[in-house]
Predict the structure.
Amino acid sequence: LDSGDEEAVVDDYGGPLTRSRMRRGPIARRRLMGSEITPTLELMTPPRRTANKRRKPATSSNSVETPQIVIDRGDLPTNTRLQIKVKEVHLIAEWKWKDVGDDTCGICRSAFEACCVNCKLPGDDCPLVKGACKHAFHMHCIYKWTEAQNAARPQCPLCRQEWKY
């Protein structure tokens, strides 16, 4: 591959090279020459760092791929040699009413998932009632509250607006 403007030069290994090929370095020369050369200290030195930090590092075409992990029952997927096997799991959950800001009835102060003072068992017998003012109460609690008031229009016990549900 001699061109008219470049001089032919003999490299350390006895092959003809042009000046542009000499600048490529010993590893590139070995690939160009196609010869099997035993590595020397010069070939084993790490590449120099460049001042341009935006350059991406060169990736070799024969890079080692990550091994495929076979998932057995109880094993977690991982790309490392560390194998994790789940033997036991303890789950804890908490639930809340979505539309209600507080989790307790404003009248009896019992939790909504529990029943009111009048009911014996929680469930459908003591439903949750939400007023137009967005305050929520047990059905029996707000019913007693509105019956106990001596007003033509019952009011919410928390904000004193007219109670509508």
Remarks:
- Strands lie at 9-10, 16-17, 128-130, 136-138.
